[in-house]
Automatic annotation (TrEMBL):
Location of the protein in the cell: Endomembrane system
Species of origin: Photobacterium lipolyticum
Cellular component GO terms, alphabetical: endomembrane system
Protein name in UniProt: GMP synthase
Keyword set includes Cytoplasm: no
InterPro entries tied to this protein: Ccc1_fam
């Protein structure tokens, strides 16, 4: 097994394979959008359900509140994600225009910035000057180097629409799971809540496992950590609903 993995690694680092890989544009990853949307969706709806049960409300109230929050919060979260990425893109473009203007107005000053950037990386003498000349002869490379090295801006920017849709879809799909038991009329409120708790726990643990597999982290620890986060939020909501019911005498 290890030998096969090593062979695959060697094959991936063959000069032709590297050339083909570098020709492709970097792919943006939306796994973080899906994880964030899924966790927030499940926390939101299960917290609403827990609060409703803690307050002694009926199943119909839990359903109405749950689905209202599901769609409203899911839409809000998707729009917020879209606006955040869009703002980052606009910021990047503004910095790019500024660097292009600096190259036109004070090219020697920009060359000095390139020189000092690579000098701090350990280059000196003739090699350093060759690097400066090579980069400054290609305007696009010059600007991109300044964006990355001076401003710390990553080359790969997520698509705002794709990120928003991924967040919204994950929010709805995962967030709807704790609400399903309340749509089963043959169960009483206690049974619905227990089943909802089980569904939510499965969702939290599954998202944690998915995250661990993608980022090569311990599966059990990641699943339990996500489960603990969601469970804590739901517990706070339940306790809040119960206390308010007792304080205000909600029947």
């Amino acid at each position: 097994m290890k030998k096969t993995a090593n062979e695959d690694l060697v094959r991936e680092h063959h000069p032709e394979a590297i050339e083909q890989r570098l020709k492709q544009a970097p792919k943006s990853q939306n796994i973080s959008d899906a994880v964030l949307g899924g966790i927030d969706g499940c926390v939101t709806t299960f917290a609403v359900v827990s609060g409703a049960v803690g307050a002694g409300f009926s199943s119909s109230v839990a359903i109405v509140l749950g689905f209202a929050n599901l769609f409203a919060d899911g839409f809000s979260m998707a729009i917020s994600n879209y606006e955040s990425i869009k703002a980052q893109q606009e910021f990047t473009e503004d910095i790019r225009r500024s660097e292009e203007n600096h190259i036109d107005e004070i090219p020697e000053g920009e060359k000095e910035e390139i020189r000092q950037i690579f000098q701090r990386k350990g280059f000196n003498g003739k090699i350093l000057e060759e690097i400066v000349e090579t980069i400054s002869q290609d305007r696009h490379l010059w600007v991109e180097t300044m964006l990355t090295e001076e401003h710390g801006i990553q080359k790969t920017t997520p698509n705002p629409w794709k990120s928003a849709i991924t967040t919204f879809a994950a929010f709805l799909i995962v967030g709807a799971m704790p609400l399903i038991p309340f749509l089963i009329p043959v169960l009483d409120m206690q049974q619905q809540f227990v089943l909802s708790t089980c569904f939510a726990a499965i969702m939290f643990f599954s998202i944690g496992m998915l995250k661990s597999l993608v980022f090569a982290k311990p599966v059990l620890i990641s699943g339990l950590r996500t489960l603990l986060t969601g469970g804590t939020a739901a517990g706070i909501a339940f306790l809040t609903g119960y206390l308010l019911r007792e304080i205000f005498g909600i029947g």
